[in-house]
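Researcher: Please predict.
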Amino acid sequence: MLTEATVEKMFRKLISDPNRGEGKFDEAEDLLDEELRPESPLRHRLSQELEELRELAEKS
């Protein structure tokens, strides 16, 4: 299991890709599911952020 700092760094790298699409969002979601406990506050925060980014991508 990775540290929370490492998971957040990997997450930020995935979502900061200017050519990100649904595949990158799925990778980020998988990362959170695989590396963070369900009760983790970081997992909750990043999941919310991912959901918002998906909604913004759908609108544009």
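Model: Residues 41-59 form the longest helix (19 residues).
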